[in-house]
Input
Amino acid sequence: IVTDARVALGSVAATVIMVPEAREQLVGRPLDADSIEAAARAAVDASSPIDDLRAPAHYRSDTVGTMTRRALRALARGDELTTWPAAPGVVEAQLAELDTQRAADR
Output
């Protein structure tokens, strides 16, 4: 049974948004196919993506549902960390830049 949940979405609204409706579909229920699908639908409904050069709005909406389902299924299986990089590239690059700056300051 899910005791707490937070779903946040980025790149599908003006700023990062929290989706309390997805939380409502998860908390107090088993993390199963039905609750996962309900949370994914709530996430899609909460998003308001735009069309731009990188992707049309309908693609972004579809991606919100897909990524929400994937993340929740991984949590249900208990393997959510196995598919994530140990050090995401952007973070890695930022850390390397900080190290360079610190070395120069010495």
Remarks:
- Residues 57-77 form the longest helix (21 residues).
- The chain is about 55% helix and 5% strand.
- The radius of gyration is 17 Å.
- The longest strand covers residues 8-9.
